[in-house]
Amino acid sequence: MKTRAAVLYQMEQPPPYGVSRPLVIEDLELDDPGPGEVLVEIGGAGLCHSDLSVIDGTRPRVMPMVLGHEASGVVRATGTGVRDLLPGDHVVFSFMPVCGHCLLCSTGRPALCENGAQANTAGSLLTGARRFSQPGRERLHHHLGVSAFSQFTVAAQESLIKIDPSVPLEIAALFGCAVLTGVGAVVNTARVEPGTSVAIFGLGGVGLSAVLGARAAGAHPIVAVDLLPEKLDLACQLGANYAVNASQGEVVEAIKDLTQGGAHYAIECAGSELVLLQAYQATRRGGTTVTVGLPHPSRQLSISALSLVAEERTLKGSYLGSAVPRRDIPRYIGLYQAGLLPVDRLLTRVIGLEDVNSAFDALASGAAVRQVIRFS
């Protein structure tokens, strides 16, 4: 079948992207779903910094690629052997397909699925297939098993989580990355306890989701840190008790003052090793620092090795919010429906596919939290 999609052929084209137009909008051929695969019509596709990091070359991927990894949609057809999904079902994508039988899946850490990570690196589905093509040209790669910047896509069944169809698809899309990662970093990785202090560095979609997660977990106080006043204002509207502008004064000292000696938990969502160092320094003795952001692979972190022992510090990475997607996505949607996770506040605007390049300029500048592509 035919599908309209945004294809990245070359990384590191210069901004502004509304001028250089790294994403090429064109018609592609999409194969029918093979065994264990599902055809999905995309209902909403979010623009995330992880997409931007592929465009600017910070996170290199195989080219050419149909970009997009945060999405929701409606099942239109299934291949043989698909379990639990039928045409008409509403789904959210998990950008880590969970094989269920590798060592990490079998020991309760599916966010680190070995087979899923291998497929994502190769730009294929978990099945090993690539389903996008152009007549007479090479096949295109999938982005994290999703490729949401396409009206239709084919995904492995392990990349899909069935959801309540009453949830608007533009909102449901955000649960596939921003919410799953940010809330998960708080409740799964850090395991924040009620009444403990949390400092959150970087207020993009993931960082603001972490604010929502910290509020839902009963944390107090919640300190939000960013460079942009608009993001700090929104964080306070979403439940942060204090806002610290990182461009004004000593961030670490400000957080120590607000939390009476340092945060019990610090969550770094900026993707910078320098911000991670600040987060670690702002964590109190015996506290936990969680890093969610993805800095350039060449960047290194230098901390006091002694502090890990003498102050019983914990420094943890969090990928996909340390989530079990099939468990956590429906759970977080339930909290949204109960009014405890107002995820709709993260949606800045809905755009068309043709606007995707200029929309990445808005994301890069911080002018937007989450923009969602709607195809119809």
Task: Name a few traits of the molecule.
single chain, 376 residues, alpha/beta, Quinone Oxidoreductase, Chain A, domain 1, Rossmann fold, seven-stranded mixed sheet, six-stranded parallel sheet, 13 helices, globular
What does the model show?
With 376 residues, this protein is an alpha/beta fold. It has two domains: 2-176 and 342-373, Alpha-Beta Complex (Quinone Oxidoreductase, Chain A, domain 1), CATH 3.90.180.10; 182-319, Rossmann fold (3-Layer(aba) Sandwich). Helix content is 29%, strand content 25%. Strands 3, 5, 6, 9, 10, 17 and 18 form a seven-stranded mixed sheet that branches. Helix 6 (178-190) packs across helix 7 (205-216) and helix 6 (178-190) packs across helix 12 (325-337).
Radius of gyration: 20 Å
Q: Largest beta sheet, briefly?
A: 7 strands, mixed
Number of strands: 18
What fraction strand? 15-25%
The oligomerization state is: single chain
What would you call the shape? globular
In CATH terms, what is the fold-level topology of the largest domain? Quinone Oxidoreductase, Chain A, domain 1
Helical amount among residues, as a percent range? Answer: 25-40%
Q: Spans of 5+ residues with little confidence (pLDDT < 50)?
A: none
User: What is the CA-CA span between the terminal residues?
Assistant: 17 Å
Number of helices: 13
CATH architecture call of the largest domain:
Alpha-Beta Complex
Counting helices, strands and paired strands, the structural category is: alpha/beta
CATH class of the largest domain: Alpha Beta
Overall mean pLDDT: 97
Number of domains: 2
Spell out the CATH superfamily of the largest domain.
Medium-chain alcohol dehydrogenases, catalytic domain
